[in-house]
Specification:
The protein has 280 residues and is α/β, with parallel strands linked by helices. The chain has a single domain, classed as Rossmann fold (3-Layer(aba) Sandwich). 27% of the residues lie in helices and 13% in strands. The two termini are 22 Å apart. The relative contact order is 0.17.
Length: 280
Amino acid sequence: MVKLSALAAAAVAIAGWINPDAGPADPRAHRTIPSVPDAPFAGPFAVPFAVPFAVPFAVPLAATLGAGHGVESADPSGATRLTIARLQYDGGGDWYANPSSLPNLLAAIAERTTLKVERTEARTTLMDDRLWDYPFLHVTGHGNIHFSDAEIVRLREYLARGGFLHVDDNYGLDESFRREIARVYPDRPLVDVPLSHPIYHLVYDFPKGVPKIHEHDGKPARGFGIFLGNRLAVYYTFSSDLGNGWEDVGTYADPPALHEAALRMGVNLFVYAVTSRPSV
């Protein structure tokens, strides 16, 4: 079982409780969000805590990721931008696919948790200094993805310092992503993320793992990952197409229930990403 620090457990306790004013949600939506000193985390960790909690990051991610490397946050205050950054990559693949997906997911995170997220997605490359400002990188597309040698080093450093990478195969990205991630971690193959892992239970419960959202070729949805110690640093959704589910209802012929399932899974991913970062 993955264990979080006391501060991370506190963050989950707040972020993991559904906003009582949220839209479609589970029965927890009718509960009052607990105060931190009085409420132990009642989720899959069941870790009690007594840590004061004010913001999702005790230490700005930019400070963690950029320490000692001459990298400064794009925000003069040094604060991490609490949003999702879409990664722009080379190789010819459509990194810009599913344009309404991330705004819809960020809206769901804002409405269903207490995390103060920006509702506008960010866009970055691996060599952009703004990379260090973002705790969550999202990659999607249908075609080829390629990283330069410098980008391989940069991505490895970003992940080692606490960043989280979510790659969503939009059908056609699988071969090139597997090739490139093997360059980042030649000694750490992608593995199936256990169904007991917090990403499937933090806010919404997915006992069968990542949901199947959009059908392409009949293959089952699978969630692969790369762990750095106990922390899931890379999460790869294959044959699921969460991004299609995050798009505006009606964009595809998938039923609204799958749109909801995709949003719930996305909320879990973001909450895990911002609460599992190692302390410094």
